[in-house]
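Work Package 3 (structural annotation) set out to generate three-dimensional models for the target panel prioritized at the project kickoff. During this period the team completed the workflow that converts sequence records into discrete structure tokens, so that structures can be stored uniformly alongside our sequence database. As a representative example, we reproduce one entry of 312 residues exactly as it appears in the project archive.
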Amino acid sequence: MARRLVRAFGDVRAVDGVDLEVAEGEIFGFLGPNGAGKSTTVRMLTTLLRPTDGSAHVAGFDVVRQAPQVRAAIGVALQDAAIDPLMTGRELLHLQATLYGIGRAEGRERSERLLDRVGLTEAGDRLVGGYSGGMRRRLDLALALMHEPAVLFLDEPTTGLDPMSRVNLWDEVRRLNTEQGTTVFLTTQYLEEADELAHRVAIIDRGRIVREGAPATLKSQVGLPTLLLDVEVGEEERTREALAGVGEARPSRAGRVAVGLYEGAAGAAEAVRVLDTAGIRIHHMELNTPSLDDVFAEATGRRLEGAEEAAP
């Protein structure tokens, strides 16, 4: 839980009065473009950076006054984590166990279990310098789990990974949450990642929370899903008239009709029936539902990636 959390670097407030509350056993997604304040917030919550103002508690402990207790209760896999390339995966896990005061026998047993869990058993005796990016991220996850933390912080865990490695890591995060009840705080700039994993999300922009809630709820608040229909040029107006009772017309190019469905996705079937009755030929049809990027654009006037300004 964070209340009015602030971190300033000189005159720049990288985090500017953030309020957050994450429930026990929840996967919480923290979304925003690069430079929005995601990593700075995580570093404060994990005791790596002292807040300029405000307060935060993690696993029931104050991140400033009870920093050792916070560190004992959390696991952290940061985007820029340094892993010694001259050690093997198994050696790093044994070292991690020692650092947490776990006995030799117990540490070795946990190391083998974690190597198996993240699919690195066969690579356990290879130097980490020879690991792929996906293997290093999975090892980093295993290291963060050595002491069986109640709260796991994952800072952009799939950045730079290929699609298969990304899906594999998603599966592991789900297992941790469902099978062990681990609370996961996930920062990401990938919309699909948040949609796939998070029970709730908060979107941060320029150091402030601009939206918070369940992904489905946030997307439903943006507006109706849009049905896109490719028709014969010259048939656009007749198509719009036929669909007037199904949805509101939206701007589109020649040869295409866009309609915001009043009944949501369920209205697509009615639209097809109406068009068939009217004898209107459709070359292509697709249904676009609002995305988390649309939520961000609605809140800030920019797209989540921050590369382009949203159209007026």
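Residues 306-312 have pLDDT under 50 and may be disordered.
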